[in-house]
Amino acid sequence: MAVLNIRVLPDPILRQKAKKVPRVDKSIQQLIDDMVETMRAVSGVGLAAPQVGVPLRVAVIEIPGGDEIITLVNPEVVKKEGERVIGEACLSVPGYQGEIKRSVWVKVKAQDRLGRKIRLKGEELLAQALEHEIDHLDGLLYVDRLDGPDKLRKAVPESEQEGL
Ligand code: NI
Fold first, then answer.
1. How many CA atoms does the CB half-sphere of 93 hold within 13 Å?
2. What is the whole-number distance in angstroms between the Cα of residue 139 and the centre of ligand 1?
3. Quick one: pLDDT at residue 160?
4. Would you tell me which of 29, 44, 65, 107 could form a disulfide with 79, CB atoms 3.0–4.6 Å apart?
5. Within 10 Å of residue 106's Cβ, how many Cβ atoms?
6. Structural contact between residues 53 and 7, judged by C-beta atoms closer than 8 angstroms
7. What pLDDT is attached to residue 158?
8. What residues are neighbours of ligand 1 (ion), with CB under 5 Å?
9. CATH for 12-160?
10. Alpha helices, DSSP H only, in the chain?
11. Where are the domains of the chain?
12. pLDDT (tens digit, 9 = 90+) per residue, 69-103?
């Protein structure tokens, strides 16, 4: 395993639409393992492959206090409900946090680390992380979802949001 370099704005890879993974093979599993190690090295909650320079539809999520790492290959939101305004930050936009609207609840379909089809439901931080990481795969960042420029602030260390 290896800790990978996290790309930050204005790296153009963050703005590309990532490609679908045709087959979950050893190289994809290696990428997943490296992404998990990288996410943990920076105490992140989620990480998408474009953030480590790989334009493929792969993401990992680890909710603090949760009991598992969630691996998402080719994830898609199939249902979402509600709307809430929340603080958000991104490992690729260091030093900032913003206030945006996210769904209260989402349902996602994807493949897991072994290529098996999975469906999962998330609310609160997990719903936020799922939407945030899937946005990364479409070349979107939370800063694109701000209601206005006044909704982006310099991060205050003691109030720092979870890095996604
Ligand atoms: Ni992010």
1. 23
2. 10
3. 55
4. 107
5. 23
6. yes
7. 60
8. 90, 164
9. 3.90.45.10
10. 26-41, 124-137
11. 12-160
12. 999 999 999 999 999 999 999 999 999 999 999 99
Q: What separation in Å is there between the alpha carbon of 47 and the centre of ligand 1?
A: 6
Q: Can you give the pLDDT at residue 67?
A: 83
User: Which neighbouring-strand residues pair with 70?
Assistant: 61
Catalytic residue among 133, 158, 160, 162: 133
pLDDT value of position 104: 97
Taking the C-alpha atoms of 4, 43, 107 and 49 in order, what is their torsion angle to the nearest 10 degrees?
A: -10
pLDDT at residue 161 in the model: 62
**Rounded-to-5 percentages of helix, strand, coil across the chain:** 30, 30, 40
Low-confidence stretches of the chain (pLDDT < 50) are none
Answer whether 59's CB lies under 8 Å from 136's CB. yes
Which contacts qualify for 22-27: CB closer than 8 Å, 24 or more apart? 23/115, 24/73, 24/111, 24/113, 24/114, 24/115
Rounded to the nearest angstrom, the distance between the alpha carbon of 92 and the centre of ligand 1 is: 6
Ligand 1 mean position, distance from CA 74 (Å)? 17
138, 134, 153, 49: which is closest to 93 by C-alpha?
153
What pLDDT does residue 149 have? 84
Is 76 among the residues known to form the active site?
Answer: no
